[in-house]
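Ticket #4471: structure output looks truncated?

Reporter: J.K.
Steps to reproduce: submitted the chain below (191 residues) through the standard prediction queue, then opened the result file.
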Amino acid sequence: MNDQSYLHKFMLRFRKYSIREHIAGLWFSQKFDSCGYIIVSGGMPMPKVIHKGGKLLAENCQFYSGVRLEIGSTATLVIGNGTYLNRNTLIICEDRIEIGRNCKIAWDVIIMDSDLHPINESSPIVNKPVRIEDDVWIGCRSIILKGVTVGYGAVIAAGSVVTKNIPPRTVYGGSPAKLIAELDDPARLHA
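Returned output as attached by the reporter:
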């Protein structure tokens, strides 16, 4: 890219987001290991990072008020370009969580890759990576549990509990989440 296209992108970003959102993004991104432009919107409470030593990597992303990111000592959290996490989203990463590009994560969503504690004293703590591919939309108050992959372009309905892999270009909802529609089948979408 040439200097003019960088300047053009910079100007577009400043037309879309306020200086306050940019400054808050700069402040918030200090706890990231690597990041692009970070925007923080929505006022108080500010997003929070609890960084216990793992890696937090993000591209150009937007975070809203109340977002909380918890990264364990050996964990890696990756958030792709153009993704936003809406109000009060909680991500608990003890192993690895990857969130793709252009994902829309609504408010009060929980994503976790760990049980965080054993069921009883003799059982181990179980951690399994979570992968959310590009262009996924996760509805409000949904929960994504350990070991799940959400496929490209999938939609998770509000209030869902995702315990198993979600195929690409599908709509899942409920507790536990079940197939509602395939996005490539217009007849089922409007039924």
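Triage note (M.O.): checked the attachment and the full token line is present. The two ends are 46 Å apart (CA to CA).
Status: closed, working as intended.
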